[in-house]
Amino acid sequence: MSEILRVEDINVYYGAIHAIKGISFHVNDGEIVTLIGANGAGKSTTLQTVSGLLKAKSGKITFCGEDIGHVVPHKIVEKGLAQCPEGRRIFLQMSVQENLEMGAYTQPNSGIAADLEMVYDLFPRLKERRKQVAGTLSGGEQQMLAMGRALMSHPKLLMLDEPSMGLAPILVEQIFDIIKDLHKKGTTILLVEQNAQMALSVADRAYVLETGSITLSGTGAELAASDSVRKAYLGG
Amino acid sequence: MTFLGHLVTGLSLGAIYAIIALGYTMVYGIAKMLNFAHGDVIMVGAFVCFTVVSSLELPPVLGIILAVILCTVLGIIIERLAYKPLRQAPSLAVLITAIGVSYLLQNGAQLIWGASPKSFPSMFNFGGENGISLFDGQLNISYVAIITVSVCIIIMIALTLFTEKTRMGKAMRACSEDKAAAQLMGVNVNQTISVTFAIGSALAAVAGVLMCSAYPALSPTTGSLPGIKAFTAAVFGGIGSIPGALLGGILLGLIETFTKAYITTDLSDAIVFAVLIVVLLVKPSGLLGKYVPEKV
């Protein structure tokens, strides 16, 4: 398996606050890798740094063999790294279809129609609502839209930040079914989650992030069985 | 008949405010800053056209084209040099910079063209007439008024199509909602802001030429008051909204003209602002402004 993303010893600061303290991890082609951890552990900060929205003070980020540590965010998207951000961040005043078209911003126009069909197949609800203004969608639908939008750029690596946040349990199950489905179809995924149980159940490998450092790593099953993870994140 | 005359005057004045307000509202919508130098770009546009037509005695069309080109470049340069370095700075710093740029443009114009008012050439004369006469001469409509209103309508339609249909237009709407999310889509935010300033400044040049054709006294401070009024019109209509800028501009022009005609000339500006304050008290986001709930 070839490596798609490698993060080596990055340090990220918010002003004087040392948010990420020298973490390293990697994602192989075809894997689902998850970063789990409590609120404030630095999960979203890590993804934002990989996307280029935040800059690491030191360390190295390699995507498909290329150093992307100093590349601007919109160029990183062009290289095939898509992020579905925390809180979904869809364009509330645009229609569902316009949101998806924004997702294809880096793609040639010729392929957009086919890609829209691909996303609508995956999320039939979005097709029903394609002309609706995105702000009127329910939370679950907004999450689907955010994921569909990220898929429109044909990512080599899809980073999902807390896709289960604020959703009812049944919707969380649906979202994770879709994640498994995407994985089966060959999408490589880096998943950030507070819902450790769900995340570990789908992940090939996992890292535990605590106050800016990686404290544990292993396969999804190993971590799910680990005592410290069970105590801290899985409710005993 | 006088009522119709005032209506025409109000509409064309409103159309000028609307064209200026579009620049304010687009820049605010996308860069989230109030570009108080916008009014002075209008003045620069008018002076460029004045120089080409009156001093160099070249055709008016060339004057308009050069004014648009130079203002577009000026807008891009102002953004690049003055505002871009402050992208992460507090909004007050940006506001004060904008006021500084405004004075810089006024003083620069004073150096180049002098402080005394110039008489702007009358550019819209066709067949020796400057307008059309209706109802046996009871109602005169100037060509400037007709052209101003038509240009305003064309600009509105063009901008609406641009933001709805084109790739850059959609990128602008995405940036105006959420810059970080737009970047995650692959949008080059800096480039988008540059294009916004370019469009706003090109519109300012057009507004400058139209305004000075209707009210021909041109001096380095010519742009200030219309700039502030157009900014108010943009807020009145709902800042960030393109149709709002049109509605706000036209209403402002009509209120101002009718106040001058039927109530008082001396207090017309005060009354205009009083109306706006009342409207904003009732509807803080402006007439067409969208209330967007803060996301947690």
Average pLDDT score of chain A = 93
For the secondary structure, the number of strands of chain A is 10
Q: How many helices of chain B in DSSP terms?
A: 11
Percent of residues of chain B in helical segments?
Answer: over 70%
Which geometry of chain B do the CA atoms define? globular
Instruction: Determine the strand fraction of chain B and express it as a percent band.
Output: under 5%
Termini gap of chain B: 56 Å
Largest sheet of chain A: 6 strands, mixed
Low-confidence stretches of chain B: none
Mean pLDDT of chain B: 91
**Cα distance, first to last residue of chain A?**
34 Å
Helix/strand order of chain B, N-terminal first: HHHHEEEHHHHEHHH
- Total count of domains of chain B: 1
User: In what order do the strands lie side by side in the largest sheet of chain B?
Assistant: 1-4
What does this 3D model show about the protein?
The complex is a heterodimer of chains A (236) and B (296). Chain A has 236 residues and is of the alpha/beta class. Chain A has helices at 43-51, 73-78, 96-103, 112-122, 124-128, 139-151, 169-184, 196-202, 220-225, 227-233; strands at residues 3-14, 17-28, 32-36, 58-63, 66-67, 81-84, 157-161, 189-193, 205-210, 213-219. Chain A has one domain (3-89, 155-233): 3-Layer(aba) Sandwich (Rossmann fold), CATH 3.40.50.300. Helix content of chain A is 37%, strand content 27%. Chain A has a six-stranded mixed sheet with strand order 6-7-8-3-9-10, with helices on both faces. In chain A, strands 2-1-4-5 form a four-stranded antiparallel sheet, covered by helices on one side. With 296 residues, chain B is mainly α. In chain B, 71% of the residues lie in helices and 4% in strands. Chain B has helices at 2-31, 38-55, 60-83, 91-113, 143-165, 167-177, 179-184, 189-214, 224-237, 242-262, 268-282; strands at 118-119, 131-134, 139-142, 217-218. In chain B, the strands form two sheets. A two-stranded antiparallel ribbon of chain B has the order 1-4. In chain B, strands 2-3 form a two-stranded antiparallel sheet. The longest helix of chain B has 30 residues, at 2-31. The interface between A and B is medium-sized, with 27 and 21 residues.
